[in-house]
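FW: tagging you since you asked about this chain on Friday. Here's the raw sequence from the shared folder, copied in full. Didn't touch anything.
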Amino acid sequence: MALFSGIRRVLGGTSTGGLIVSKDSLCVVRSSPIGLGAARDFATKLFISGLSRQTTNEGLRAKFSEFGQPLEARVVTDKLSGRSRGFGFVRYATEEEAAKAKEGMDGKFLDGWVIFADYAKPREPKPPPPPEEPNPHGLNIQKTIGWCG
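HL: got it, structure written out here
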């Protein structure tokens, strides 16, 4: 049973959503992470790169509202400093509005920087961490740096 929970963790998180696990044949099948609704969402969501560090969510929304009503405009920020990481996302209600915004803003200036607009893509899954190499002597030694006395 631990094998199946480990496989679930590697393939898609701790939940079984999207996974079909057969205990009899040791077969794991991952159903498509992009359903019909998600595929449509990527057709209406734009990835905006080249943003200035001073660009805010409101500034991004204001500039992209020239091409339609954005449902969401978000600048991705650094967790520690709170500053912009230089990219963001804008989501529209229709594919036509997203296409107009992509054509109208790709290669244009925003807050003094040239920005690029492209359709958002699903995030690539992270590869699993490499397995730990066993100790050739058969002992698991806890390595400690510094004084432990």
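FW: Helices lie at 2-12, 36-44, 57-64, 95-105.
HL: agreed, and The longest strand covers residues 84-92.
FW: great, closing this out.
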